[in-house]
Structures are given as C-alpha cells and as structure tokens.
Amino acid sequence: MSTQPTRNALLGLYGATLRAARSFKSYNFRNYFLQRTRDNFRSLLAETDSDKVSRAYKQAVGELAMLKRSAIVNQLYAGPPLPIEVHGAVKGGV
Questions:
Q1: Looking at residue 85, what DSSP letter applies?
Q2: If exposure means fewest CB atoms within 10 Å of the residue's CB, which of 17, 78, 80, 86 is most exposed?
Q3: What 3-state DSSP class applies to 63?
C-alpha cells in the first residue's frame, strides 16, 4: 500500500504538466494537451480513494516526462503558425 501524495504535490505536478503542454509550438497539440491536463487533474483532485490517487499520480509523472519529450520534438519540427495564432491573440479562444 503506497502513501497518498499530498495536495501540494498534486498541484505542483498539475502546474508542471500545464507548463509542458504550453511549450508545444503547434496550436492543436498545445490546446489538446492543455484541455486533457485540466480534465485529468480535475478528476484526480476529486478522487478520495488513496490507492487510485497514488496510481494516477505515478501515471501522471510518467505522462509528464513523455509530454516534455514530445514538446521538444514538436518545437524542432513545428510548421508555420496558423492564422488563428497570428500576433499571439486568439479571438474568442480559451
């Protein structure tokens, strides 16, 4: 039986995952991973079973490492920005 991660550890992992998701150059990948991160951590923070939280935390740590590697590759091979991204202002976006 593993110990449940603290709320601060969960929030720290959430912040690190959001930063990794924001580092994608491609608009579609970036927005997909931001939304996926929000959804995953929303359900994780609502969970009360300590075993499920511990397993989900370990899985999220592994996904963070994968997300960081994927973001680096995406930055290397990113195409030109989409018209919606011009000047950094997304009209009517998130």
A1: G
A2: 80
A3: helix
- Give the separation between CA 57 and CA 27, rounded to whole angstroms: 27
User: Which 8-state DSSP code applies to residue 49?
Assistant: -
Buried b (16+ CB within 10 A) or exposed e, 70-91: bbeebeeeeeeeeeeeeeeeee
- Picking from 47, 67, 69, the residue whose alpha carbon sits closest to that of residue 56 is 47
Q: Per-residue pLDDT for 55 more than 70?
A: yes
Cα angle: 26, vertex 77, 82; to 5 degrees: 35
Q: Rounded to an integer, what distance in angstroms lies between the CA atom of residue 54 and that of residue 83?
A: 42
The arithmetic mean of pLDDT across residues 46-67, rounded, is 94
The predicted model scores a pTM of 0.83
| Residue 39 dihedral angles phi and psi, to the nearest 5° | -65, -45
